[in-house]
Design goal:
The chain is α/β, with parallel strands linked by helices. 47% of the residues lie in helices and 15% in strands. The chain folds into 3 domains: 5-48, Orthogonal Bundle (434 Repressor (Amino-terminal Domain)), CATH 1.10.260; 59-162 and 296-329, Rossmann fold (3-Layer(aba) Sandwich); 164-293, Rossmann fold (3-Layer(aba) Sandwich). The protein contains 13 helices and 12 strands. The strands form 3 sheets. It has a 6-stranded parallel beta sheet. A 4-stranded parallel beta sheet has the order 7-6-8-9, sandwiched between helices. It has a two-stranded antiparallel ribbon with strand order 10-12. α9 (193-208) links the parallel β6 (183-186) and β7 (218-219). α1 (5-12) crosses α3, α2 (16-23) crosses α3 (31-44) and α8 (164-177) runs parallel beside α9. The longest helix is centred in the last third of the chain and has 20 residues, at 296-315. The chain is elongated and about 80 Å long. 42% of the residues are buried. The model has no long low-confidence stretch (mean pLDDT 90).
Length: 337
Amino acid sequence: MKATINDVAKLAGVSIKTVSRVINNEPSVRQNTQDKVREAVRQLNYQPNQSARSLAASKSYVVGFVYDNPNAYYIIDMQQGILNACREKHYELLIHPINSKSDSLLDELKEMLRQSRASGLILTPPLSEMQDVIQMLTEADVNMVRVLSGKPYATETPCVFVDDRTAAYQITEHLIAQGHQAIAFFSGDEEHQSTAERLAGYKAALADHNISADVEWVYSGQYSFESGVENCKAMLAKSAKPSAVFACNDEIAAGTLFAARLNGLDVPSDIAIAGFENNPFSRQTWPKLTTAAQPTQDIANEAAELLFRTLQQANKKQPQACENISFEPQLVVREST
């Protein structure tokens, strides 16, 4: 039989009201009382009724994850990281994919917020980088946390920053240390700031080692396997061929590897290939791909925890400090380089 709030109160030896206050993270409950209630919740595997909580508190115990990203592994890891934090705080997670290029984007977001009554949102690129989206949500007084590519800087909303530029610099420097002077760069979608940040890191490493960046070796593309295949074919059709490729993510790198081997090239003897993100593509290829390990689940979990802190400040009507968190992906060297 499913446990009720009465069961939790009886096991913890407190009132139903006290259980409700602990579950709702209300202040001024003594720590030992909180511990007893949470232990009772754990033992009974009690699951609060989210609808009842929302009605009783005149607010929604729902947070939204809004995204437009073609990378399925990234989205799965983001969902899991946010969901882990939501379960700890007894919140529901609303997952809302959306077309960031749609003319009705803002209207769709407004309608989603109206129907869900979500307490807050977590936004990932490119939505988190779109000023019209941020302005609309700010004017609507929506609590949000944005995941952004770049080093931390002053923002008007709480953010989790991912230092793609430094990681891209390290990947490029690793290729240079392996003796490569001619290194191609296969881009992701241009509307994602991560593409610009990774390209900037690549160019900075070349410049610091007195290697000129050949514009013909920078290929536009998308964050997809197919983009890596097409760009590798185009690159190999030219007379002058780089000895290494830095692909903007692991899917692009896997496509590059596939096309290179179809053309009879050995990796890494004939051409070295590196990716970015350390998603399953990097470990499922042969040889396995050098990459930058981006802890997406940790990033998502921190974004959710940051949102909950923001919501708590808002509920207490406290002045909201704009907190920012930073992550730096770490170089992982494998057989492809």
